[in-house]
Amino acid sequence: MAKFHPDYTITMKDFVKEHSILLRKQTQEVAIPVSLEDQHTLLSMLQYLKNSQDPNLAKKYKLRPGSGLSANQIGVDKRMFAVLFEDHEQRKEMVFINPKIISHSLNMIYLPEGEGCLSVNRPVHGFVPRYERIKVKANDLDGQEFVVPLKGYGSIVVQHEIDHLNGIMFYDRINKDNPFQLPNNVVIESYF
């Protein structure tokens, strides 16, 4: 039986830590049609996000809250991730398989408090510039292709996860000389 099945609860012990080679390499494409094992892994990842955002379950299982989770963060070398976030007071939960950003805005945004990561167990200070709006093409759990436009926080979360699949950590995008300096050749504003 595969590790991640419907009855398995992902906890912090399942997370790959930031210095792992798995987080620094391009992940492998997911075969379509999507295998039952990959579907179960994605559903387990989505359930982690739900549990982590539930104060009672987060406390019970000692979970750090997350808005996104990529497969390589739990040791699975596959191009897929799950997200769960609020967007204009609407809860969005989605899975992305073999995602590609097919277009993006010129304008950029950043989170004023910076970004965090479930694989990074330390505070990292600095601004992470992201595209304000993106359009992503991916496959869903059934292998069907879809295209989704994202903006604001959802755009930030999805770019963070796509970076994971490409071996990029969020802090790679922070200015090394001045962590709170933003690119000066684009329109960029705080998300909040």
Report the strand count: 8
Q: Can you tell me the CATH topology?
A: Peptide Deformylase
DSSP helical segment count: 3
Provide the domain count: 1
CATH superfamily: Peptide deformylase
Shape: globular
| Order of helix and strand elements from N to C terminus | HHEEEEEEEHE
CATH class equals: Alpha Beta
Across the major sheet, the strand order is: 1-2-3-6-7
Distance between the termini: 44 Å
Model regions low in confidence, pLDDT < 50 over at least 5 residues: none
Class based on secondary structure composition and strand pairing: alpha+beta
On the 0 to 100 scale, the average pLDDT is: 94
Largest sheet geometry: 5 strands, antiparallel
- Looking at the overall shape, the CATH architecture is Alpha-Beta Complex
Radius of gyration using CA atoms only: 16 Å
Percentage of residues in helical conformation = 10-25%
Strand percentage: 25-35%
Outline:
The chain has a single domain, classed as Peptide deformylase (Peptide Deformylase), CATH 3.90.45.10.
Topology:
Layout: H1 36-53, H2 55-61, E1 68-70, E2 80-87, E3 90-104, E4 108-110, E5 130-131, E6 133-139, E7 145-151, H3 152-165, E8 188-190
Parallel strand pairs: 4-8
Antiparallel strand pairs: 1-2, 2-3, 3-6, 4-5, 6-7
Structural commentary:
This protein is of the alpha+beta class and about 190 residues long. The protein has one domain (about 25-190): Alpha-Beta Complex (Peptide Deformylase), CATH 3.90.45. Helix content is about 20%, strand content about 25%. It has 3 helices and 8 strands. It has helices at about 35-55, 55-60, 150-165; strands spanning about 70, 80-85, 90-105, 110, 130, 135-140, 145-150, 190. Strands 1-2-3-6-7 form a 5-stranded antiparallel sheet. A 3-stranded mixed sheet has the order 5-4-8, covered by helices on one side. A hairpin with a 2-residue loop joins strand 2 (about 80-85) and strand 3 (about 90-105). The model has no long low-confidence stretch (mean pLDDT about 95).
